[in-house]
Design goal:
- By secondary structure, the chain is of the alpha/beta class.
- The protein folds into two domains: 172 residues, Rossmann fold; 82 residues.
- It is built from ten helices and nine strands.
Length: 263
């Protein structure tokens, strides 16, 4: 049965659906140390070189980070010509890295909760939105899908998300394009059109804000990453919060950005 969100008067015109997409790293959880170790392991296995310098990760996909890491660590691709679908073998190299990264991350599964942390208010925020009829939650993250699941499962968050409709770091498309595809997948699965005024992307970087603009969504930005509140405002975020600690403020932000008058 389709459920509807009710924010305000219980009149028919107040019944709407909402798609809420979440960034993961530094928005919901911080597992930076484990991620860096897994990156170093996967990079060494694929290139035969140590990962001396890791590029800026905020708002980037793992495919973007990998190719930047190749450049800044002077690690030229070494791919058998017969296995390379492109002239330089980049597709095959990325596929190998994604596979090794998933393996390296899974090997560190037990370390996620020990060396990482769930950010203040994250559990309460996703729980509160899950309790609102008509709200569908998924992820739009630079992390590859297996690792996204691992990160959320470590803190008992995975049960709140529909991973089938999300966007992940193994895809070659930028986040804005992935957001549009997530809206399409959600519409097909749930039989409801999720437009710009009924889709919200919650992230922590200026690139997340830009992805929301490009992908046709409203944005809630939290200053829990490397972007300041001023940075996020300047990037054009619909609403900026210091963090997720105030659950009422998070739910209210979704309401304000998606209520019919907000269009």
């Amino acid at each position: 049965m389709t459920r509807y969100a009710r924010f305000g008067p219980s009149a028919p015109e107040a019944l709407i659906h909402r798609l809420v997409l979440w960034n993961i790293d530094l928005t919901l959880v911080d597992v930076t140390r484990v991620t860096r170790d897994a990156y170093a392991d996967a990079f060494r296995r694929v290139t035969g070189r140590p990962l001396v310098q890791l590029p800026q990760m905020a708002g980037q996909s793992e495919s973007e980070i990998f190719f930047e890491a190749l450049a800044c660590n002077d690690a030229a691709p070494t791919v058998p010509a017969a296995a390379a679908p492109t002239a330089d073998g980049s597709d095959e190299l990325l596929a190998r890295f994604v596979s090794e990264l998933a393996t390296a991350f899974a090997a560190r599964r037990e370390s996620l909760a020990e060396r990482g942390r769930i950010l203040p208010g994250a559990q309460q925020a996703v729980q509160a939105l899950a309790d609102v009829p008509g709200v569908v939650q998924s992820v739009l993250t630079g992390t590859i899908r297996p690792n996204a699941t691992e990160k959320l499962r470590a803190f008992d968050l995975e049960r709140f998300f529909d991973f089938e409709i999300g966007g992940y770091g193994s895809e070659i498309y930028p986040k804005g394009a992935q957001l549009m595809m997530s809206r399409g997948r959600a519409a097909e699965k749930y039989g409801v059109a999720f437009g710009e005024t009924s889709t919200v992307y919650i992230g922590d970087s200026t690139r997340d804000v830009e992805a929301a603009r490009v992908g046709g969504a409203r944005s809630v930005a939290v200053a829990t990453g490397r972007s300041t509140e001023a940075d996020l405002h300047a990037a054009g975020a619909g609403i900026v919060l210091p963090d997720l600690a105030d659950t009422t403020a998070v739910v209210h932000a979704i309401h304000l950005l998606t209520m019919p008058s907000a269009g």
